[in-house]
Specification:
alpha+beta; FAD/NAD(P)-binding domain; 8-stranded mixed β-sheet; 380 residues; Alpha-Beta Plaits; globular; binds flavin-adenine dinucleotide; 22 strands
Length: 380
């Protein structure tokens, strides 16, 4: 890496492709560290997967240990970012998780995970269902005959992702002189053996010492412009947002039938992960929309106030999913100058990855990133 960027980042030209959570957080941290940052976004900040995300920030049941710790630190880094940027896009009212008692194997696995999380220093509290419905979430209905324990992760929460991405990019520009270009990257011009910048759809080129591929689910097509076959698959998902509803939800709720969280203005976001397998890539909106009433049906069993409420929006997104499910972060081993950064759980991880990648590009040693290098997929 230090072949391309001096000990300090000052003056280094860095082009970032993509203004989602990852590209926006990285633009902010790199520009803050003194790099000359140009972010190229084909639409607007957060317009990709970032704006179509359940956006739960969490470390619960994430394995192995170093990946769990990365996610747990990810939550803390969001607090630092919020303190630096200001704004009210971060919500850390906690997360609730439960399964039903009838599945003994799943209950045993859950107990094992909870022990593991606590051993690793992650706070997970066990509470009875009546405590949840009387004290924490009075608008939830939890069948106490099927559920005897609920786990609360008090440090978790969710993010208003588009507002976060916009705040990051605005701060990168106004405080640290980053530049944003609204265009599509259509080529990666060569410089010597590597990549020397980005070529835009209108034919203009922007020279760069480092080009960062932060294009989310488009990462494989962007990497292909440099002849790289990135081992990432596109995994569609669907979310449903209600109209303002008489449900005063604060926590992110993960339950066997569906997941719920607040979505601002009294709206509730509903996720039923089982639906995701019914989607094709590219996702067919009509298929997704046809699932709305079933989603609402499941959600209103959990929150009675949702009965009779309409689904106002159906959000369809595509997860960038590396082949082994873990982030890909680092320079392409065979294409000098091209840096990959893509991940699922990118909302949880964007702030910590931005911090670590910036430390690396400043010449620091960053052992936390070692498990996620692109080299792990290179055979021979
Ligand atoms: C249904 C669903 C639920 C999810 N739930 C969670 C969750 O609870 N918690 C969590 O942490 N994560 C969750 N995720 C994953 C998370 O949303 C993603 O990991 C994250 O948004 C990826 O951010 P990104 O910046 O890499 O990609 P994106 O947000 O897609 O940003 C990439 C940007 O690049 C731009 N772009 C692409 N190609 C080009 C080009 N050639 N030229 C210029 N610009 C380009 C796009 O316009 C886009 O804005 C979920 C995802 C989905 C779909």
């Amino acid at each position: 890496m230090t072949r391309y960027v001096a000990e300090r980042l000052s003056g280094a030209k860095i082009a970032i492709i993509g203004g989602g959570a990852i590209g926006a957080a990285l633009a902010y941290r790199l520009a803050q560290a003194g790099a000359s940052v140009t972010l190229v976004e084909r639409a607007y900040p957060g317009s990709g997967t970032t704006g179509r995300s359940f956006a739960w920030i969490n470390g619960f049941r994430k394995f192995p240990r170093e990946y769990h710790q990365l996610n747990a630190r990810g939550i803390r880094e969001h607090t630092s970012l919020r303190d630096e940027l200001g704004g009210d896009w971060l919500h850390t009212d906690g997360g609730l998780f439960w399964i039903t008692d009838d599945d003994a194997d799943a209950v045993a696995a859950l107990h094992q995970s909870v022990r593991q999380m606590r051993d690793w220093g992650y706070r997970v509290d066990r509470v009875a269902p009546d405590v949840v419905v009387h004290e924490l979430e009075p608008d939830l209905t939890i069948g106490a005959e099927q559920v005897s324990e609920i786990y609360v992760c008090p440090n978790e929460g969710w993010i208003e992702t588009v507002r976060m991405a916009q705040a990051l990019i605005r701060a990168a520009m106004e405080r640290y002189g980053a530049r944003v270009v609204r265009s599509s990257v259509a080529s990666l011009p060569r410089s010597g053996a590597g990549v020397g910048g980005v070529g835009l759809a209108d034919g203009t080129e922007i020279a760069a010492d480092v080009v960062v591929n932060a294009s989310g689910p488009e990462a494989a097509s962007v990497a292909a412009l440099a002849g790289v076959a990135l081992p990432v698959r596109r995994q569609p998902g669907v979310l449903f947002v209600t109209e303002p509803a008489p449900v005063s939800l604060r926590h992110v709720v993960r339950s066997p039938g569906c997941n719920l969280r607040p979505d601002g203005g009294g709206r509730v976001m509903i996720q039923r992960e089982a639906f995701d397998t019914r989607l094709t890539d590219p996702p067919d909106r009509l298929v997704a929309e046809a699932l709305a009433s079933e989603a609402l049906d499941h959600a209103s069993r959990l929150a009675k106030g949702l009965a009779g409420i309409r689904v106002e929006a159906v959000r369809v997104g595509v997860r960038p999913m590396p082949r082994d499910g873990h982030p890909i972060v680092g320079f392409e081993p065979r294409v000098p100058g091209l840096y990959e950064i893509l991940t699922h759980s990118g909302i949880t991880l964007c702030a910590v990855l931005a911090r670590l990648v910036t430390e690396e590009l400043c010449g620091g040693s960053v052992p936390e990133l070692e498990p996620y290098r692109p080299e792990r997929f290179v055979v021979g």
